[in-house]
Amino acid sequence: MQIRPDRQTLYWSATWPKEVEQLARQSLYNPYKVIIGSPDLKANHAIRQHVDIVSENQKYNKLVKLLEDIMDGSRILIFMDTKKGCDQITRQLRMDGWPALSIHGDKSQAERDWVLSEFKAGKSPIMTATDVAARGLDVKDVKYVINYDFPGSLEDYVHRIGRTGRAGAKGTAYTFFTAGNARFAKELVTILEEAGQKVSPELTAMARGAPPLLSGHGGFRDRGRGYSGGRSWN
């Protein structure tokens, strides 16, 4: 009631979950909603999406194997659920010879600025991050996004993979999906199919309520080979 009648208040949101809609209706009088694009949750079609069904104790070995396959000096952004996870995985990667740094809410602004500068310059092309720290990141030319931990919502999934993209080239997103994430399987399949991505039979089965079929072993303590082979990320 204290706002001038000729003033307009605008809300901007990349996605429009029920919580945001409720906040808008509580805060705005007679609101109008303008949609750019589709009202449905969709991923950028220019992003290649790969979903790998794994167990929790397979994740680190899967990550190392993936890095061995894709590491070419390009920027790689790895998402974790927790600050502790960021630091733990980053520490293990560095012990195994991978050029990694972490960024999250517990770090000071000076620390975050330094990590970002190292990442942007390619001096440390691997960066782990939580969703909170990654929301305001302005880093261009990220070639790969890896969801080490699946996020708590499909909106966050779309936000995360949207961080990848290069000028004139497609970005690629890799996701580790566990039995604990099964409640998201149906919606994830819908997003993948709408974007024209390949959906594995395992993920399709999980979307129908079947338990995941996992093979192989491995855990956090099993070390990878590191970034070796005479290549340089500089």
TrEMBL record:
Keywords: ATP-binding, Helicase, Hydrolase, Nucleotide-binding, RNA-binding. Its EC number is 3.6.4.13. This is RNA helicase. InterPro entries: Helicase_C-like (IPR001650), P-loop_NTPase (IPR027417). It is an enzyme of class 3 (hydrolase). Pfam families: Helicase_C (PF00271). Residues 214-234 are annotated as: Disordered. GO terms for molecular function: ATP binding; hydrolase activity; mRNA binding; RNA helicase activity. Residues 62-207 form the Helicase C-terminal domain. The lineage of its organism: Eukaryota, Viridiplantae, Streptophyta, Embryophyta, Tracheophyta. GO terms for cellular component: cytoplasm; nucleus; ribonucleoprotein complex.
